[in-house]
Design brief:
340 residues; LDAH; 12 helices; alpha/beta; globular; Rossmann fold; eight-stranded mixed beta sheet
Length: 340
């Protein structure tokens, strides 16, 4: 773990020099341009993973000391995470290579011809990517995940325990919240082929509008507090039939699988290599789940964010930056402790 210690020393030094100021983030939640304009930009590329065209968002370090793989939520559209990925890279002083991997068929182009993919197929897809692209990497692999991505990353960790060194779950969706009226409504929509078809078709019709009109619709509906990056991603992806249909189908399979309790035995066995961040008001990752985790695995690293960011933290610059700080602080504290 010497390389991790080197990374941590470098990132701590970088953090002291960075233009970011964590204390001011919450007070600027409604403002734009919190991130430095001259930061290194993440690049989007296509990669064939087990015969599935996959979108990757990457920032490559010249001499990386650590690999970070970001597993998104659902929608698994990695363009939503651009600000977050770039913030993490900057805060780590450019010493980490970061890759965000998108879900199959939640891509800008309809590569899969309308085929629908389940939660388990998306998990297999991520495992195949690690085996094919990161198998021979000699530097540590960290999984950073969001929402249902947290469930996916834990399953990856369970299947590849020798390759994964640490796993961070952000606003994790690990089990159904039976107290949530929103989840109950979503559950009824996703199990109905008729409703799923209507929702996806409506989104596709909006996608035919001129770009200015699409941006207006997204901002006025789901994206009232979104950054320009998130609005652009929403217009380019969510307003396509194949993307929305896959989002809803994957959600249906999530609801089926997550009716089961989390694998507490596995989490207890890996407690010192796992961390969670919960939101104060998040029906996907409610405080009741954080309390259950604390009960089942008392020593696991668990934080509750009370700054007013939402489950979709990556859709605002303030949320992306705050969570990026949190992730880097976890790397500094938890992995440094583990390496001693």
């Amino acid at each position: 773990m010497l390389v991790v210690s080197r990374l941590l020393s470098s990132s701590i030094s970088c953090s002291s020099r960075t233009k970011y100021r964590l204390k001011s983030i919450s007070s600027q939640m409604g403002s734009e341009n919190l991130l430095p304009e001259k930061r290194k930009q993440a690049t989007l590329r296509l990669c064939n993973v087990s015969s599935h065209m996959t979108e990757l968002l990457e920032l490559r370090a010249e001499d990386p000391l650590i690999n970070i793989l970001l597993i998104p939520g659902n929608p698994g559209i990695i363009s939503f995470y651009k600000d977050f990925v770039e913030a993490v890279y900057e805060l780590l002083g450019g010493k980490a290579s970061i890759t965000a991997i998108g879900h199959i068929s939640q891509t800008r182009k309809n590569w899969e011809g309308g085929r629908l993919f389940s939660l388990n197929e998306q998990i297999n897809h991520k495992v195949d990517f690690i085996k094919n692209e990161l198998q021979y990497a000699e530097i540590p692999l960290l999984l950073v995940s969001h929402s249902i991505g947290s469930y996916i990353s834990l399953e990856i960790f369970r299947r590849l325990p020798e390759q994964v060194k640490y796993c961070i779950g952000l606003y994790p969706f690990l089990s159904l919240n039976k107290e949530s009226a929103k989840q109950s409504l979503i559950g009824k929509i996703v199990v109905s082929q008729i409703f799923s078809f209507l929702v996806s078709s409506t989104a596709a019709v909006f996608g035919l509008f001129p770009s200015w009109a699409s941006r207006f619709l997204v901002r006025r509906s789901i994206g009232k507090s979104w950054s320009a990056t998130a609005v652009e991603a929403g217009c380019n992806y969510l307003l396509q039939y194949h993307v929305m249909r896959n989002v809803l189908f994957m959600a249906m399979t999530e609801f089926d699988k997550l009716s089961e309790a989390p694998d507490w035995r596995f989490i207890r066995g890996k407690w010192d290599q796992i961390a969670f961040l919960f939101g104060h008001d998040d029906h996907w990752g409610p405080l009741s789940m954080s309390e259950e985790i604390t009960k089942q695995v008392p020593d696991v690293a668990l934080t509750i964010e009370r700054e007013g960011h939402t489950h979709a933290f990556c859709c605002s610059e303030a949320g992306s930056l705050w969570v990026a700080y949190h992730v880097v602080s976890l790397i500094n504290r938890q992995i440094l402790i583990a390496s001693q």
